[in-house]
Specification:
Elements lengths: L1 E4 L3 E8 L9 E4 L2 E10 L5 E5 L4 E4 L5 E8 L2
Antiparallel strand pairs: 1-2, 2-7, 3-4, 3-7, 4-5, 5-6
């Protein structure tokens, strides 16, 4: 599903894993939308996500999450 966001950006829902998560992705955790501000690579394909709120989430290589990803209109 894709929707137009203010400012001409396109918002789409994507499934992300530790290998595909990107800085700027918005992931809903515990009913709150959290934007990824930094990623730390961990051993065995895991990643630790630092959200703008200062919270950390560690995901392993098999974790699958749904994120909102903003892309600019061309």
């Amino acid at each position: 599903m894709s929707n137009w966001a203010p400012g001409g950006a396109l918002a789409s829902n994507v499934e992300v894993t530790a290998a595909t998560v990107l800085r700027g992705d918005i992931i809903q955790v515990g009913g709150r939308a959290c934007r990824v501000s930094y990623l730390f690579q961990l051993p065995q394909g895991a990643k630790q996500l630092l959200f703008e709120s200062g919270e950390l989430l560690t995901i392993n290589g098999r974790t699958r999450l749904v994120a909102v990803r903003m892309t600019r209109r061309r």
